[in-house]
Design brief:
- By secondary structure, the protein is mainly α.
- It has helices at 2-19, 36-40, 48-66, 71-90, 93-96, 103-106, 108-131, 137-162.
- The longest helix has 26 residues, at 137-162.
- The model has no long low-confidence stretch (mean pLDDT 84).
Length: 164
């Protein structure tokens, strides 16, 4: 039953990303990628190889809809590679027994650290690969900061509403 909920959430978030959030152009530098929410909230008990495959599939789907030639795939694989190691650092062993990362399971502080690190890494990778030049470094950093702030706020907001 948990897998059907997870899959349904994934489909809903991907549809929101493609139909709504990809159409937003806030200040020309804000591109919230909420589809990362599904990757961050994957069950902890999945094998590392399954995490990587799910990350590759999510990135590939976004690349198809965004016509971005593998940028999202590379970014998603990177964060899914780092995710288990980051969980080991941020979440203590007692909390690690929970099935899923959530506000209820790990608390606000750990969730914010976890989300900020992975979202900033994802966005920095996406925007750096898209710019592909050191001459756009400041714009990449500004775009990363603004987009990551909005994305993390949406992820935290989702968790607050879900576990109210």
């Amino acid at each position: 039953m948990e897998w059907t909920k997870q899959f349904g959430r994934y489909i809903l978030v991907m549809m929101l990303q493609v139909l709504l959030f990809d159409q937003l152009q806030l200040w020309g530098a804000c591109h919230p990628y909420i589809y990362v929410l599904c990757l961050l909230m994957m069950p902890i008990t999945l094998p590392h190889s399954a995490d990587m495959l799910i990350g590759a599939a999510a990135g590939f789907i976004m690349d198809i809809f965004c016509n971005s030639l593998g940028i999202h795939t590379a970014s998603c694989i990177l964060i899914m590679f780092i995710r288990p190691y980051l969980l080991g650092v941020i979440v203590n062993d007692k909390d690690r027994l929970n099935e899923q990362i959530s506000l209820h399971a790990v608390g606000m502080e750990a969730l914010v650290k976890y989300a900020v690190i992975l979202v900033v890494l994802h966005h920095l990778t996406v925007f750096s690969l898209a710019a592909w030049s050191w001459s756009h470094l400041w714009f990449v950093l500004i775009e990363t900061i603004i987009s990551s702030t909005i994305t993390v706020a949406l992820i935290i907001g989702y968790n607050i509403l879900r576990y109210r």
